[in-house]
What does this fold into?
Amino acid sequence: MSMDFGEGDFTDAATMRGRDWPALTQFCVIIENRVGSLNQLMQHLERHDVRIIALSIVDTIDVAIARVMLDQVERGRELFELSGFTFFENEVLGVELPDHTQPFVAVLSALLQAEVNVNYMYPLLFRRAGHSSIAVHVEDLDTATKVLRDKGFGLISESDLMNDDEHFG
It folds into this structure.
């Protein structure tokens, strides 16, 4: 019995995700909850010429998880792999806040109507055309992407972060 693996197989273009895919890579770095740990992480990243686009800390008694987004995902992955830091990756949506009196409500209402659960969100140091942006972690990335696009929300890709002229920080 002969089994061919990979021969004749193909990857559907819709499942390949690259720099223009409207999701952003978030690095979750586990650091000790002690004085200087966060500073050590920031020094490691900033000395290698990557810009930190977002940072959110989840604190526990013994450890903290630093959620970090960088302008150069591949370079960031390499830096983490070569470092002593324990990390994992996941995807979040980068969403431009609309020009609306209640921009957060507008985004969250669109996701609620589609029954997409939001796990957490935090601000990005990214602006396009004067609009602030947020990172949103959802349970169903594909549905959230479709709903937000259909409702006219601007989504941010990794290539947007690499070509950002209006970086703040």
User: Anything to note?
Assistant: The first helix runs from residue 37 to 46. The beta strands are 24-32, 52-59, 63-70, 86-96, 118-128, 131-138, 155-156. Confidence is low (pLDDT under 50) at residues 1-16.
